[in-house]
Amino acid sequence: MNWEEAVAFALSLPGTEMSTSYGAPAVKANGRTILSPGREAGSFCLHIDRDTVEMLMETDPDSWWQTPHYTGWPAVLVRHDSADPDRVRLMIERARDQAASRPRPRPRPAKKG
C-alpha cells in the first residue's frame, strides 16, 4: 500500500480530512494527524499510540519500523511493500479511532511576522 492508497483508504473513514502537518500533506481525524508522508522513501508514517507501535515493530519489523527521528514518539513508519495490507488498513482505522476519541487540539496562535 503506497502513500496514495493509504490516503485514499484513510479518507474513506468517517471524520477524516486531508490537511497538513508541519507543512506536509497529512490525513487528520478530529484535528489530529493519523497519516503523514514520513521522512523515508518507500514508507509513510502512521500516528498511533506507543504500545501499538512497539507491538507492530515486534511482530512484523519488515513492515513497521522507526528511524531515530521517530523513536519514543507515537508514530511508526509503514513500508509501501508490506506483506499484509489488511493489517495496515486495520491500523489506519485504529489510528483514526484513537484520534477521534481524544479532545481536539487547541489552535496554535498565529505567527507574528
Automatic annotation (TrEMBL):
**Where along the chain is composition biased (Basic residues)?**
103-113
Q: Which InterPro entries match?
A: YjbR-like_sf (IPR038056), YjbR/MT2646/Rv2570-like (IPR058532)
Region named Disordered? 94-113
Q: What is the protein's name according to its record? A: MmcQ/YjbR family DNA-binding protein
